[in-house]
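User: I'm putting together notes for a lab meeting next week and I want to include a structural view of one of the chains we've been expressing. I don't have a solved structure, so I'd like a prediction I can at least talk through. The sequence is below, exactly as it appears in our construct file.
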Amino acid sequence: MHGIVIALLLALPPLTMDQAADLAAQADRAVAGKDNATAAGLYVQAIEAGAARDRYGYKAACCFALAGKVDEAFRWLDAAVEAGFAHVDHLKADPDLASLHADPRWKQSVARAEARQAAAIEKLTHKELRLELLRRMRIDQDIRRQKNPDISKWMKIDADNTAYMKKVIAEHGLPGYAMVGKDGALAVFLLIQHADKDRPFQNECLALMRAKVADQQFSGTHLAYLTDRVLVGQGKPQIYGTQLVQINGVLEPSPIEDRDNVDQRRKEVGLGPLADYIEMVRRNSP
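Assistant: Thanks for the context. Below is the predicted structure for the 286-residue chain, given as structure tokens.
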């Protein structure tokens, strides 16, 4: 069946990157509706239209696995790894792929991902820094996942991480992909994003991150989140709608500049439609 879908796609006019983003957004909505078979096909179409093969290939693999299409799941999982997906710990723990674990191909796919990750790490210029960033990110996320976290401990963790990031940046500049890899850069982003007690520092990091994005050493999506964080911290309207607040018990975006065009701005940095984002956050909030 999949071969027929691909044949039909090849017969259609070439799609644009805007259409790829729209297809990916449709797929995300299908996932939210638990229509995994439809989502998988849409992710494949998004990839054919130019969406990132590593990111969306992995999403397609998850959806195919959940839909019981094991062969297609392995096909797209391996395609994602070949394109650069190397988040081995996430891959191993992802419940969406649990149905693949008993298949002999699972160990082969994991081994390929491990080899890809090892090769990527070997090229990094600051391997030990990456490990420390990942350690701190785990602590940062663990406290935030607790149902009844110790707030004083939470504040201490954030303060310690902020002080640490100041030292790192003073010594190395803002670490990007070449220094600490994509997972290390994710940790950098999160530790800065959670440095709310030091708004001037966040603002300084925003300029550094903007330069890194221009050099393709940092994620434009992460820059969008930090941009909004800084603006909201300054009491100004945000640009991308990433920052939500409780209003009468309901999560809503903080004020957004030119809200009518926010989805276009979100698309430009790789974010899906605002309405989908709000629904996702509300659905996953306690």
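A couple of points you could mention at the meeting. The two ends are 40 Å apart (CA to CA). Confidence is low (pLDDT under 50) at residues 1-15.

User: Perfect, that's what I needed.
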